[in-house]
Amino acid sequence: MKWFNEYKASLKLVEVEELLDLVFYRPLAFLFVKAVYKTNLTPNHITTIALIVGMIGGAFYFLNTHIAISIGAVLLIIYDVLDCSDGMIARLKKNGTFFGRILDGIADYFVTVTVYMGIGFGFASNSENPLYFWILLGAAGASNIVHAITLDYYRNKFLDYAFNRDSTLGENLEEFETELIKLKKDGGKYFQRLIIWVYLKYSALQVKASSNDSQKTRINYNKEDYLKKNKRILHLWTYLGPTTELTLIIIASFFNRLDLFMWTMIVVANLYALTLFIIQTNINKNTKLDEI
Prior knowledge:
Layout: H1 2-9, H2 19-36, H3 43-60, H4 66-93, H5 98-124, H6 130-162, H7 173-186, H8 190-209, H9 223-237, H10 242-254, H11 258-285
């Protein structure tokens, strides 16, 4: 029971967790966390190790052999376990850092880009019809970007209401902008400056994509009604998250059918996202507003 309570304490809100994380990756990550808990490994150390493992896994896709991409897939599984571990140990030890919050999020995108590049230059470029598969890969990648931005937006919006936060992006962007200015004045720490800069650019993209619900025009829904009506739909949105996408790549790799991954992202995932968007729009229309 003690381990179960610790496992629950290491999670974010269950409503915002991806299903595959809850039933597979995070339980494995928790075992890793318990194994290293008394060591000097920090969340940032684990994030860095995860990033290296994930990018090495992505590099194997450049080799374009079944054995190579299967090895890459195994490394991606390890990456996802480690990617879950850093946040879990940070919550248990309460030793998360300012920089670590951003590094953890950026790591996903570095690894994803490496994997997509590996698939492109490995699988697509060496296929019988390179242009066709590069177009498919580009469409799958674009779909992934849209899904990630959409999920981040609805997840952070849900957390805003759950924790009475002001920012629709889930963080105070002014805090990060101030930190970036400070780092520039101090000089050095180029990697940290790059990570924060990338994060701010990504956040600006989210703001632009969701301009109808920005800070200035934000709709003030009734908190209780909003959380009640969005709890289930948010869980469904998480099926479009990075863990699901990465797992699709892993499964396709073991079967040596990366083309099926692309078509699943383009057709199945986009139809699913469109269906959820229609349902979400209807939920928003029927959610009570706070009385002013």
